[in-house]
Amino acid sequence: MRSRRKRGSQPEEHHVDERWMASYMDMVTVLMCMFIVLFAMSSVDQVKFEKLRNSLATGFGTEISQKVDTASGVVVPSELTTANGEGFSALDLAIKEADKLTALQNAMQAKLDGAGLAANVQFVVGERGLTVKLVGSQTFFQPDMPDLTPKAVQILNTIAPTVVGSGLEVMVEGHAAKGVTAFASTWELSAARSVNVLRYFVDNSGMPPGRIGAVAFGAARQVTDDSTEELMELNRRVDVVLLSASPEDVRALIPGAIEAQTQETAAAAKGAK
After folding, report:
1. Residue 266 carries which DSSP code?
2. Would the pTM count as exceeding 0.85?
3. Helix crossing, 186-205 with 150-165: angle to 10°?
């Protein structure tokens, strides 16, 4: 027979499943370890940090580089690095930029020479970039007028593909000789001329409007005095400036790079004789 429970005995205890405690304790342990690590890293010991970094990276299956990146300054894009991954110096970049600007100049010069239009176009490679000087108002504009002459249209047609294709921002700068003008001042005259050149690039050569601008200097930036008509012609000009996109410290070295290249070319030509 079944034994009967004795009267007055306590009922058996039914324990709730407590397996959740193991997961909870694991989580608390992990949190504690994380805070210990954060506290340890609050005052960085380079040796300990390297060991920790390597341990974590190994745990995640990442290859470790033994070199710590301590570079400062401008980050050099991959296209401006040597074959072994080293970045070019500012002078190297200046030489590279000078070569690029000189190549644009040579391309325009060759086209102008081929069309017989080079007489009134001058080039200067400098800190700002490549300046194309359209010299002589008699060639590009009627006297005291802002409208482009047929020869000006020919010259702009010749250089426009290179200017637009360069991808560089362009600034058209108007200048004028001192003297009496039908405009309110030489500022208005030079402004109208620079805007007309700008509009020609945009309307007829596909130049994106966001890449080009126009300014006027009037007679404020003379390259010569106005003592003769010939000298006045040099002050009646429009400059088309292809602005270099290089950083300022690199652009500052472009004139020196150009001078060095000129000296090397002259020395090589002298040695070849």
Report:
1. H
2. no
3. 60
